[in-house]
Amino acid sequence: MKRALLLGMLLVGSTASAGDVVKDVRARLADVPLLRGDFEQKKTVSGFKKPLVSRGAFLLSREQGVLWDTREPFASTLTLTRKSLSAEQGTGAAAYHLDASKEPGLAAVNEVMFALLSGDVAALSKRFRVEGELVGTAGWKLTLTPTDAGLARVFKSIHLEGDTYVRQVKLDEARGDTSVIQFDKLSQTPPPSDAEARRLAK
């Protein structure tokens, strides 16, 4: 009986502590309308020994969307806005285009993508159970477990690490694959170029 009571107290205590940590993480993150930088993604696929590595640059405009431009090993672009998702190969030919008004799940994907890159813990809390810890005087870590049935079919969990910005995202997929995305050279400037603005306006 005492053991059960002690376990219950520990569980209640850890839940309250996790809530406090999430608030502290939100306080450490910069609230920025625009963020750009470089990324390196390593995807480990079941059955393959070596991870698949890709590198490139991204732009996050909180009001408009996300531009994800892969440079290596092959050039490709991904444009994610509140209204649509478009992908192109290096030749400029459209690989596919999805309209949020015709794809009900796309709005949820967009929201999660924006929230992951910007570290929007409030938005993530709508679709994930959020647990975390503070690291040192400026760092933090979060573990996200899907509470949304659709997301749970795709992800087992998502892990975020950062400080003022999100520095790493690890995606543990339901089918066993894992992706680790590292962000570097993060900056709030310059604003979108004319070409970037045209892509975000589509």
Descriptive terms for the model:
eleven-stranded antiparallel β-sheet, 29% helix, 202 residues, single chain, 5 helices, alpha+beta, outer membrane lipoprotein receptor (LolB), chain A, globular
Summarize the structure in words.
The chain is α+β, with helices and mostly antiparallel strands and 202 residues long. The chain has one domain: outer membrane lipoprotein receptor (LolB), chain A (Clam). The protein has five helices and eleven strands. It has an eleven-stranded antiparallel sheet with strand order 6-5-4-3-2-1-11-10-9-8-7, with helices on both faces. A hairpin with a 3-residue loop joins β3 and β4. The longest helix has 27 residues, at 2-28. The model is unreliable at 1-17 (pLDDT under 50).
Taken together, the total number of domains comes to: 1
- The total beta strand count reads 11
The CATH superfamily bears the name Lipoprotein localisation LolA/LolB/LppX
**Which CATH architecture?**
Clam
State the helical fraction: 25-40%
Q: What is the approximate shape? A: globular
How many helix segments? 5
Helix-strand layout with pairing:
Layout: H1 2-28, E1 34-44, E2 52-61, E3 65-72, E4 76-81, E5 84-89, E6 94-99, H2 104-118, H3 121-124, E7 128-135, E8 139-146, H4 149-152, E9 155-162, E10 166-173, E11 178-187, H5 194-201
Antiparallel strand pairs: 1-2, 1-11, 2-3, 3-4, 4-5, 5-6, 7-8, 8-9, 9-10, 10-11
Short characterization:
The chain has five helices and eleven strands; from the N terminus they run H-E-E-E-E-E-E-H-H-E-E-H-E-E-E-H. The chain is of the alpha+beta class. It has an eleven-stranded antiparallel sheet, sandwiched between helices.
